[in-house]
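Postdoc handover notes: sequence design on the structure in folder B. Input tokens:
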């Protein structure tokens, strides 16, 4: 039995062309750890702080442990050269914890619809798990992320030490994952 190449196109993969670059969104595997570490090394301290709510240098050990043990569902977005440029996490509910989602997009790739693409994929995964709500913790000063999740119907449930916990409804009907390389559809504007 042969082991597939870690960056081979997998059954769950989705393609999208953004700014003339053909990107791939797929489930992550343990073989992706070096690429995820490299993503963290390329991200600015500001982006890392917004993702982890604390100053970090590189990929946190707990992330790598969860990555290797399958504690959460991770998704990566890669370029044609297999460079990982974004990471999405869906942590299913565990004892005392609500289902969570988290995103991180490399600085140079932000505001191009990649976070929207990852969020749709995570909500699709949550719908398949028959969840009604997922949660995201967002720093109060991170207006783009707050607006992003509000666009998916997210509502601030609580504030704690400058961090908003948003509840994001999981659509009952599976949301479309791809738009067939057409323009990126944006989530509904917050009202």
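Designed sequence:
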């Amino acid at each position: 039995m042969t082991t597939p190449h870690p960056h081979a196109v997998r059954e769950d993969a989705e393609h999208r062309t953004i700014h003339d670059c053909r990107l791939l969104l797929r489930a992550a595997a343990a073989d992706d750890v070096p690429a995820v570490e490299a993503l963290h090394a390329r991200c600015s301290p500001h982006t890392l702080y917004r993702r982890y709510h604390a100053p970090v240098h590189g990929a946190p050990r707990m992330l790598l442990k969860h990555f290797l043990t399958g504690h959460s569902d991770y998704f990566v977005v890669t370029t044609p050269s297999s460079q990982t440029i974004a990471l999405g996490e869906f942590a299913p509910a565990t004892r005392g914890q609500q289902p969570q989602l988290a995103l991180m997009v490399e600085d140079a790739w932000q505001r191009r619809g990649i976070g929207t693409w990852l969020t749709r994929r995570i909500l699709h995964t949550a719908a398949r798990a028959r969840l009604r709500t997922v949660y995201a913790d967002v720093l109060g000063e991170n207006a783009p992320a707050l607006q992003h999740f509000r666009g998916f119907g997210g509502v601030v449930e609580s504030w704690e030490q400058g961090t908003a916990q948003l509840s994001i409804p999981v659509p009952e009907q599976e949301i479309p994952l791809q738009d067939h390389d057409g323009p990126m559809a944006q989530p509904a504007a917050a009202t």
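Context for whoever picks this up: DSSP finds five helices and eight strands in the chain. Don't rerun without checking with the PI first.
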